[in-house]
Design a protein that fits this description.
Elements lengths: L21 E6 L5 H11 L6 E6 L5 E5 L3 E4 L2 H8 L15 E6 L22 E5 L2 E6 L2 E8 L7 H17 L29 E7 L2 H16 L5 E12 L5 H14 L4 E7 L2 E7 L2 E6 L2 E12 L4 H13 L1 H22 L3 E2 L4 E4 L3 E11 L9 H8 L7 E2 L1 H11 L10 E6 L4 E5 L3 E5 L2 E10 L5 H19 L1
Antiparallel strand pairs: 1-8, 2-3, 2-11, 3-7, 4-6, 5-6, 5-19, 7-8, 9-10, 10-18, 10-22, 11-12, 12-21, 13-14, 13-20, 14-17, 15-17, 16-17, 19-20, 21-22
Helix pairs in contact: 1-3, 1-5, 5-10, 7-8
């Protein structure tokens, strides 16, 4: 594997021999992945509290609980270490196992920037997990599985029985019991809990920074664009929530169901690390690789939507005619085409952008696809992630200057917000989205994130309105 940043050949680290991994698989009914996650957290309390949920609008639905293997770090070192995993899975076919996780938006030069932040301490610069117990639904099939190491092969029959019980519970639609407050931090505490019909109450919310300060910082960033030092920079803001009780796995199930209903064209995701849950519903694909087929998406430029079809048509027309939004969008398209061409030699965007319709906002979007020639070796999806992230849609242009401006103007680390989240397999295929419209929940605290692209023609007040529209993706599902 070659580092896109340096061009240096990545030399695999020496690997410590491990016992081979095997998997046991049981057919299961089709269900929402959050239902599996809640049941697995109850039935497999012997697993550490690590999990994921991946639910795109179309395609594979999956969830996992516990960790058979974990890999931590920035993109290139993690890819090197994880490459040794697949040699342990020789006996796993036909079960296709995948690693799930994500990376920080800006881990810093040493890969430790996000690892040191208190709010994101459980996530770090990057973290991927081969689930101990998992659920996958794709095409017409669905199944649950468990990954066992060499010391557990003799216990495979008992694991099969546990999986059969889990499949029966999914079929019956049973609700899991949990701790008294539904907290993920101690999944083994308590045997039963009353049904909690609502999400934790939001007692207070705080803008970080305060609105007036954020507008002042946007003015400064706009000055850097006007002076020619930057073409674009993305300014993010946060809202901190004080909650009436800890946010737990059952709450995650409820809000994911609402997000899927409110934002049906988005990818719902969540990642659980220790006592923290990072979740959201993102409209933005970063990259998808299926063999020789590679896809990405330019999504930048936005306007508030309206439920009236007639008004929405007029808003679409205005968005497509907006010089400011077209400039912001074209910067992203050119960047993605250049980076894909450099990484794999082919990229063909549509000639004109379309409009992505979400519940309360419209975005300019341009799908970009590449199909490699038979003679070309497709790059690993992690190499593509490294080449494309961060795009001008979440950082700015030029990238180095935009990141420097973001570090100066934002007091708090973005963590995994606006970073790549998704999965990859042993063939190098995978799918990653940009972690937008998201929230980090830790106990009784929630951190919501939103950003806006700043160019020379930006109006700070309008940009504030845009960030509020994006924040409403989560807050609207909380009500």
């Amino acid at each position: 594997m070659t580092s896109p940043a340096t061009g240096a050949r990545l030399v695999p680290r020496p690997r410590v021999p491990r016992a081979s991994l095997r998997a046991v698989r049981v057919d299961a009914p089709r269900a929402a992945p959050e239902e599996f996650l809640q049941l697995a957290a109850r039935s497999f309390r012997d697993c550490e509290p690590v999990g994921h949920l991946w639910s795109p609008a179309e395609g594979m639905q999956c969830a996992g609980w516990g960790a058979a293997r974990r890999f931590e770090g920035a993109i290139d070192p993690l890819a090197e270490e994880a490459s040794g995993l697949w040699s342990e899975l020789a006996d796993v076919d036909p079960l296709a196992l995948r690693l799930y996780g994500g990376f920080a938006f800006d881990p810093g030069a040493d890969g430790r920037r996000s690892a040191n932040g208190s709010a994101w301490g459980d996530f770090g610069a990057g973290s991927f997990v081969l689930p101990r117990v998992g659920y996958v639904a794709e095409a017409e099939s669905a199944y649950v599985y468990a990954v066992l190491d060499g010391t557990e092969f003799a216990a495979m029959p008992s694991w099969r029985q546990r999986l059969l019980r889990l499949a029966d519970e999914l079929d019956a639609g049973k609700q899991p019991a949990s701790g008294a407050n539904g907290s993920v931090a101690a999944p083994g505490a308590g045997d039963a809990a009353p049904d909690l019909p609502v999400l934790p109450e939001i007692l207070r919310s705080f803008d970080l920074p305060a609105t007036e300060e954020w507008i002042r910082r946007v003015e400064e960033l706009r000055g850097e664009v006007s002076d020619g030092r930057l073409q674009k920079v993305v300014a993010a803001r946060m809202v901190e929530l004080d909650l009436g009780r800890p946010f737990g796995i059952r709450d995650l199930g409820r809000i994911v169901e609402r997000l899927r209903r409110h934002m049906p064209t988005c990818t719902c995701f969540s990642f659980l690390r220790g006592g923290s849950i990072f979740f959201g519903a993102t409209p933005e694909l970063l990259v998808r690789r299926r063999g020789r087929r590679i896809e990405t998406l330019a999504l930048a430029g936005s306007i508030a939507s309206d439920p009236s079809p007639e008004k929405r048509r007029e808003l679409k027309r205005r968005l497509l005619a907006s010089a400011k939004d077209r400039l912001e969008h074209d910067l992203v398209v050119r960047y993605l085409v250049e980076r894909l061409d450099r990484s794999c030699g082919a990229a063909a965007p549509r000639s004109l952008p379309g409009v992505r319709v979400l519940r309360n906002v419209l975005h300019l979007e341009t799908p970009i696809r590449a199909t490699l020639a038979e003679a070309a070796a497709p790059p690993h999806v992690l190499r593509l992630v490294s080449a494309l992230h961060p795009t001008p849609a979440v950082a700015g242009r030029p990238t180095a200057g935009a990141l420097e401006a973001i570090r100066r103007s934002e007091e708090r680390d973005r963590g995994w917000y606006a970073g790549p989240v998704g999965w990859f397999d042993g063939r190098g295929d995978g799918e990653f989205s940009v972690a937008l419209r998201s929230c980090l929940a830790t106990g009784r605290k929630g951190l919501l994130y939103s950003g806006a692209g700043i160019v020379a023609d930006s109006d700070p007040d309008r940009e504030l309105i845009e960030t509020n529209l994006k924040l409403d993706a989560i807050l609207g599902a909380w009500d």
